[in-house]
Amino acid sequence: MTPKHHGQTPRRPNIGITPDYSGPQPDAFFPRYELKVPYADAVLRAGGLPFVLPYSEEPTCVEAYLDRVSGLLVTGGAFDISPELYGETAREGMGPMKQGRTTFELALMRGALKRNLPVLGVCGGMQLLNVVLGGTLHQDIGLEVPGAHEHSQKHDRTQPQHPVEVREGTLLADALGRGQLMVNSLHHQSVRRLGEQVVMSAAAPDGVVEAIESTQHAFAVGVQWHPEYMLASVPAHLGLYRAFIQKAREHRR
Questions:
Q1: pLDDT, tens digit, for every residue of 99-115?
Q2: CATH 3.20.190.10 fits 34-84+94-251, yes or no
């Protein structure tokens, strides 16, 4: 006998995802948008419907994107946020910047936070979240954080590098559980000064800030690691995406 199912399948909320960008190459004339598959897979597995958001400098386009999504996922990449955005100049250790991408992501994130849309920032997306909320960054952990451990792992990115301590009473603890959690590590910058009404929700053993969240928004969470890379090796990480998608589902549409 076919089992009976009561109620409808939970609605999949639209999740906007910011892609990376690469310019023309000798073997590829046109520039390209790029998105690592694990981001979209994590959103799908958690119950969301992923949409890639091409860059635009037009404010009405950014608003139109935000009209059509119920959550915003700001991804990471091999570039740094301009220190001018947090009142500093570039120092030794700064990496390359992608001004067009950062300008677009700034507009999107500011608009999403103004609407109180759920926002998840991953790696560079967490750093941008802190800057948008008034915080600053260490431009290079190795040069600016005494006693810091290695935060740019050389081995398989699907495997963890070090533990973090998830703080009780945070949205992150609700999603992943409090206490120790093993994470991967692919960054050379980190939060220096927390933004306004931003709390640290996880830290590495060397004191480097590994996760933040805003206390003035329903769900504005950033993690320095890549949970979407570790869904097979440390399955608990899917819990963060599930919490994000659930907040997006509750928000609207």
A1: 999 999 999 999 999 99
A2: no
The closest alpha carbon to 226, from 51, 74, 18, belongs to 74
The neighbour count for residue 136, using CB atoms within 10 Å, is 18
194 burial level (CB within 10 Å; 0-12, 13-18, 19+): middle
All residues at 6 or more sequence positions from 197 whose CB lies less than 8 Å from its CB, including other chains: 133, 214, 215, 216
Can you tell me the distance from the alpha carbon of 178 to that of 5, in angstroms, rounded to the nearest whole number?
34
Catalytic residue IDs: 123, 226, 228
CA distance 38 to 75: 11
Kindly state the tokens that stand for 83.
Answer: 């220190």
Q: Which tokens belong to 217?
A: 């928004």
Closest CA to 191 of 180, 201, 181, 178: 201
Residue-wise burial string across 214-252, b where 16 or more C-beta atoms lie within 10 A, e elsewhere: beebebbbbbbbbbbbbbeebeebbbbbbbbbbbbbebe
So where are the chain's domains? 34-84+94-251
Residue 227 has which token pair? 């949970």
Tens-digit pLDDT profile for residues 32-74? 999 999 999 999 999 999 999 999 999 999 999 999 999 999 9
Residue 1, SS3 per DSSP: coil
What is the spatial distance between Cα 130 and Cα 116, in angstroms, rounded to a whole number?
16
**What are 206's two structure tokens?**
């060397």
Structure tokens belonging to residue 114: 């103004």
* 167-184 tens-digit pLDDT: 999 999 999 999 999 999
